[in-house]
Amino acid sequence: MTELVTAAQMRAIEQAAIESGEVTGLELMERAGQGVVEAIFEEWPELDMEVPDVPAASGEGGAAPAAQGRPPRDISGPKKHRAVVLCGPGNNGGDGFVVARLLKARGWEVSVWELAAPGEGAPDAVACRVAWLEAGGTISTWDEIEPLGAPDLLVDAVFGTGLTRPIPVALANMFRLFRDDWEGAARRERRKMRRVSVDIPSGLSADSGEILIDWEDERGEFPEGWPGFMDWYFDTDLTVTFHNAKLGHFLGAGGESTRKLKVKLLRGLGFTDSPRELPVSVEGHVRLIEPVFHGHRARSDVWFSFVNKHHGHKFNHGHALVMSGPPGQGGAARLAARGALRIGAGLVTVGCPMRAVTEHAVQLTAIMVKGLDGTHGLGEILEDKRITGLCLGPGLGLGPATADLVRIALEAKRGTVLDADALSRFQRKPDVLFDMLHDNCVLTPHGGEFARLFPDLAERLDAQENTATYSKVDATREAAKRAGCVVLFKGADTVIAAPDGRCSINAAVGDRAVPWLATAGAGDVLAGMITGLLARGFDAMSAAETGAWLHVEAARSFGPGLIAEDLPEELPKVFRALGL
Ligand SMILES: NC(=O)C1=CN([C@@H]2O[C@H](COP(=O)(O)OP(=O)(O)OC[C@H]3O[C@@H](n4cnc5c(N)ncnc54)[C@H](O)[C@@H]3O)[C@@H](O)[C@H]2O)[C@@H](O)CC1
Ligand SMILES: Nc1ncnc2c1ncn2[C@@H]1O[C@H](COP(=O)(O)OP(=O)(O)O)[C@@H](O)[C@H]1O
Ligand SMILES: [K+]
Questions:
Q1: Residues 240 and 332 placed together within one structural domain of the fold
Q2: ipTM passes above 0.90
Q3: What is the DSSP letter of 36?
Q4: Residue 284 lies in a domain
Q5: What range defines the domain where residue 344 resides?
Q6: 6 carries a ligand binding annotation
Q7: Shared-domain flag, residues 412 and 342
Q8: Residues 487, 372 within the same domain
Q9: How many domains does the chain have?
Q10: Family per UniProt (predicted)?
Q11: For the segment 512-547, what is each residue's pLDDT rounded down to a tens digit?
């Protein structure tokens, strides 16, 4: 798994490298700029070549008049590539000056626009600005911006990890206007404008992925028909970050805007080849779930145990029990049960009220059905120690029986997933639930359920929109600590945390985006998949991480048009593709 860092952790890493004398701040900035240029040419190799001029129409420009019967000959020579670099007042802007200088040295026409000159607080950026001027570069200020020739490349080096204050909405709007103006100009000149952000799209918090906008600022001055909220950051095609990806690349709006992310190593930070190991002790880091089966990277323990499924009979693979609600509401439990079976539990039983047995029996084949006489019946069946995974919540109902079933289930101390109604039922008294939970449990709330169990954390998360001091990672970590078990907070940026501080993100963004997974019942299947893994003996954190990752892989493999029923059925294909 890849380690993700916060802005403060990144600063600590850089600081440690600088203090050790291994590298200077200026060298780091130079490498960062080089990394961006390298990434640009890797992503768009065509930019590394000269642009052939478009032959002008007869009589215009430099093209020769067409000789009879022959196409016009281009005598105007190659055009230069053009870049516009937007520089901010800090070290992110410093990186921008390096990029500008390196592109100019390769023969590009480069215009630099400066929000404000870097000051004493950013001496390395000042030095890079001087180097740009010494290389013959010029600098315009943002209030002098005028339409110019269409660029092939727009480089956003305005704000990076140092953005902590919200930017004025007027500035955010300028990002959009530049982008639109230059994109229009590029279209007119038949060029394609690529947008690249240095470190993180400007306007986003590197810690929370939130858009940092000061909405109070001059908002009223702008005309009707404002663009939607999601346009208020520097919308970009490629983000080039350094050393390690940041949390903000995967959370919230940051996840949605980071379509393509390249991580460039800054050699001299105690690194050899891998961004996966952190060179200095970084407390409380977060991992991106990204199991790798082949290649030079070591397999994680989770995947090792998955591959090495024991041989033996079905009970070696665990027995999952999924509790169902009353007749007519059993679909959710059946979806969960199917997920548990397909992910490899040896046996799966749907436990239901006696009157729901017929409904389940006509629908289920490989999955067993057991009529249970309420809490008493659940207690009885749990005397069978071969039942190793429990799932309660999908379609269970919000009546008092649900709370009793949860209590009996938790007393049995098996691997247990609580989802949906099993969470919402405790809205009024979450502490009652927290007192019963044990460390082999996984709670799988979506946003609404999270707010029911942890209203103060959800409120804090909502309220911090413009300050970026509190992220989904912070909220989920706090929730896990309070609950005393693993909490998986769902979404395209699913965050999974354990009470001991371990935390990971399962990001369904960028090339892993699966918006079609937002379909009724998808969450029930996820609960079942995690239950199946618990039944197989995975610990709570590994079960949640592996289940969440496979859930998205199944959705990716199936593609648009997916309905919840398709998810379990897609798993064999995912396993095959993984070489299992
Ligand atoms: N030596 C280092 O620390 C390195 C830093 N690097 C770059 O440096 C960046 C971090 O640099 P900084 O910490 O200087 O911060 P940034 O350059 O990201 O931005 C902070 C600057 O913007 C100003 N600012 C913040 N909020 C503002 C607002 N709302 N309105 C107007 N101005 C605002 C701050 O006063 C500060 O000058 C990284 O993202 C990375 O691009 C890289 O060069 C690698 C080496
Ligand atoms: N835009 C999205 N991209 C990726 N996954 C998503 C997205 N929206 C929702 N999901 C996932 O889909 C599932 C929906 O679960 P949930 O909200 O409980 O719905 P339901 O109760 O209908 O099953 C969760 O696993 C969630 O992480
Ligand atoms: K930036």
A1: no
A2: yes
A3: H
A4: no
A5: 315-577
A6: no
A7: yes
A8: yes
A9: 2
A10: Belongs to the NnrD/CARKD family.
A11: 999 999 999 999 999 999 999 999 999 999 999 999
